[in-house]
Amino acid sequence: MNLRTPVDLTNCDQEPIHLLGAIQPTGFLLALTLDWIVARASLNVADFLGATNDSLIGRHLGDIVLPEALHDLRNRLATLRGPTAVAKTFDIKLTARGGLFDVALHKSCGQIVVEAQPAAGKHRDASSMVQSMIARLDLVSDASAFFNEGARQVRALTGFDRVMVYRFSESGSGEVVAESCKSGIGSFKGLHYPASDIPVQARALYKRNLLRVIADVNATPVAIQPERDEMGMPLDLSQSILRSVSPIHIEYLKNMGVRASMSISIVVDGELWGLFACHHYAPKTPSFEVRSICELFSQMYSMRLESRERKELMEFERRARDISDQLLSAVATNETLLNDPEWLASILTHAIPAEGVGVWINGDYAFSGVRPSTEAFTRIVRALNSTAANRVFATDYIGSLIPGAEAYADRAAGMLAIPISRSPRDYVILFREELVRSVRWAGDPHKPVDYGPNGPRLTPRESFAEWQQLVKGRSKPFTPSEMRVAETLRATLIEVVLRLAGEASAERDRAARRQELLIAELNHRVRNILGVIRGLIRQAKPSSDKIEDFVTLVDGRIHSLARAHNQITDDHWGPAPIRALIDAEARAFLGNDAGVHVSGEPVLLNPQAYSTMALVLHELVTNSTKYGSLSNGGHVDVSWYRDEAGELDFAWQEREGPPVVPPTRKGFGTTIINRSVPYDLGGKAHVDYAPGGLRATFQIPARHVSEQTGPTPAAVKYPRPSLGHPTEVPSKFLAGQKMLLVEDSLIIALDAEDILSRLGAEVMTASTVESALDLIDGALPTLAMLDINLGDQMSFAIADRLGELNVPFLFATGYGEQAVLPDLHEHRTVVQKPYTIEGIARILEDLIA
């Protein structure tokens, strides 16, 4: 070639798929450098142009094309903008003897490519037509109707036998989501196609060239002449409207029985969303004008689709903002909500549907709804720390992250993990249940690859028979919109956690100072308690010289203090109801043939008054059960009321008992009754030893009394416990029982051993979890009593083992009602310290009944 102007090919992108080097025989192509023809292709350009000379290479375009046509082409060329722009003009007469043509122009690697096809002869108002088509789309609301209407509009415009809306998934596979076709040819709607059916290179080309037509799969392509220019480069046909297609694709269509096809790209947000795939079972050449209208409709359709998806995303984001605001405002008033999975689940699943939520914070976990086992949940968190830390992670198949996840796929098949700390540690994880579904494929997607002349990747499928796959172990996938919402929620949760961390640091400082004061106060109270106990021991003077009587006397008084202490520390150190105090004493001492009748308004005593009255009531009940009305079936009336000054007047009146005889000596118990209230509380006390029944009255100053809220309880009668008088030793009903006692305090363990031995049990004692488990393995016990707290250990592992072996057992604790048991053992009996032989016997009697 002898060209006036050299060809600039320095920036030409030469990908093999673009360079098929041939066009379809439905028009002609000329490649120019300014006005000089450097390449051309057609079956016979002379026939198309009416020219007498077929040797066009190197000729000036003005020698072939009419001046007015050349003028029009130059004008259209001036409108080209961008590397993928194509200018089109219709019904242009190129030569004196040729017919009218529809022409498209574009630039390719420094050259100008002119493509022409014979004009269709009739024209439509393209803008009005597309406007009408889009107006119909705007009338539908849901996505399915939007896709169906798009397919129907394209088929009405083009006349193809079948038009499908084909959507790509994130994995690359495709699905026919809508279809319009003539009757009698079957339906492809709902079928899936593997990603290999449309290679990556072809998808990239679909983004650059929005429309591709194959007029006849049996047509013979026309080669470009010459194959390469003087620089040795082939012509890039990426933007060509006449470019031939890969022979692999031709074979693919033949295998489907299709004779002609047209594909129109649907590009959303700069990415290939899908295609309008048009099939015809006979040769078909849509006119240049129809194809141009289709291309314009596709662009408008893509914009409408993008608008719909953006609207959906905006709605998601609005909900995420609302939830973020709700999170911040709620946690600001109650920071414990962050550890409440039920609350988090109700908040988060409002924006991101899920069936369960798991929360992992500082190694602690909590759940709501469906979820894997705690062991599997721990493995998931570890895997997230190593593979997906510091970012939102979602999968519809947990098995891709954790081996063996199929075992719990029915409860948790997919998950979305939201990190809520800067370091890989804390997460909120949403779980979705397994979604078992049948996927219809156009042929087996797992069929072994057939090797062809160009390797396995370029061999088309031969079978398109429907193949069904039952998908199990996977959940409904999390959408990109849901992922973006999760990112918004992650930022909010991290903000909440960081704020709480700062507040927690300040609270730790305040707690440290409070702890120092608490230790000092505790030391003071312990010293006082030890002083009281020491006084009880020193002042106790039983009527006999028997050591057993001395122990019983002191033991009863100490237990009275313990019962009172339980009452005033159930929730916190504070006032407690006086009625509960009478309840506790009566239940411990009263007999079957006697009772206490209680009446009085609900009032509370502060801790000091409560402990004092506990000792007073203990002495009154003890004396009455030994010598007074409760010793032979009589009764006691207990009443109280507050006077106008707010002071509490308390009365103990015995009746129907033996004649009362004043004591001949003044013992420690009498001293407690007469002097405790005046001395400790600044009140008054009076005891009248009337023959018809002892009467004791006490006046407690108002500063020790407060009102109790709630309804007034009815009068209560307390029956005698089943094991008799507290001074009676129960029978050896545990004879033959092998009892495991777990207690970390030697003194308490010796006391418990003595009690259990007196009840007839053979006792084996352990002080740690390890030694207890060794004893169980060596000699299986028949009963067990486990102290909950063993220093720095808990006895729940022992309880688990005993539960597996079906060994009856009970817990023991000094924490009273505040003892917390795990869910597995929350139904177990708990005995409170200090132990009494009557209390333990009563509970064990029920346990082995």
Topology:
Layout lengths: L21 E2 L4 E6 L2 E6 L3 H5 L17 H11 L9 E7 L6 E9 L2 E8 L7 H13 L4 H16 L3 E7 L5 E8 L9 E3 L6 H9 L2 E4 L7 E2 L23 H10 L3 E9 L2 E10 L7 H46 L7 H8 L7 E6 L2 E6 L4 H14 L5 E3 L18 E6 L7 E6 L4 E6 L23 E6 L8 H60 L7 H22 L7 E2 H12 L5 E6 L2 E3 L1 H20 L8 E8 L5 E8 L12 H14 L2 E5 L6 E6 L4 E3 L30 E5 L3 H13 L3 E5 L2 H10 L4 E5 L1 E2 L2 E2 L1 H9 L4 E5 L16 E3 L4 H11 L2
Parallel strand pairs: 9-19, 22-24, 29-30, 29-31, 31-34, 34-35
Antiparallel strand pairs: 1-11, 2-3, 2-6, 4-5, 5-6, 7-8, 7-13, 8-9, 10-12, 12-13, 14-15, 14-18, 16-17, 17-18, 19-20, 21-23, 23-28, 24-25, 25-27, 26-27, 32-33
Write a brief caption for the model.
The protein has 849 residues and is of the alpha+beta class. The chain contains 18 helices and 35 strands. It has 5 domains: 16-118, PAS domain (Beta-Lactamase, 2-Layer Sandwich); 126-311, Beta-Lactamase, CATH 3.30.450.40; 334-354 and 365-428 and 479-539, Beta-Lactamase, CATH 3.30.450; 544-707, Histidine kinase-like ATPase, C-terminal domain (Heat Shock Protein 90), CATH 3.30.565.10; 738-847, Rossmann fold, CATH 3.40.50.
Tell me what the structure shows.
- With 849 residues, the protein is an alpha+beta fold.
- It has 5 domains: 16-118, Beta-Lactamase (2-Layer Sandwich); 126-311, Beta-Lactamase (2-Layer Sandwich), CATH 3.30.450; 334-354 and 365-428 and 479-539, Beta-Lactamase, CATH 3.30.450; 544-707, 2-Layer Sandwich (Heat Shock Protein 90), CATH 3.30.565; 738-847, Rossmann fold (3-Layer(aba) Sandwich).
- It is 36% helix and 22% strand.
- The chain has 18 helices and 35 strands.
- An 8-stranded mixed β-sheet has the order 10-12-13-7-8-9-19-20. A 5-stranded antiparallel β-sheet has the order 3-2-6-5-4, covered by helices on one side. A 5-stranded antiparallel β-sheet has the order 15-14-18-17-16, with helices on both faces.
- Helix 12 (578-589) runs parallel beside helix 13 (607-626).
- It is elongated, with a radius of gyration of 47 Å.
- It starts with 21 loop residues before the first strand and ends with a helix.
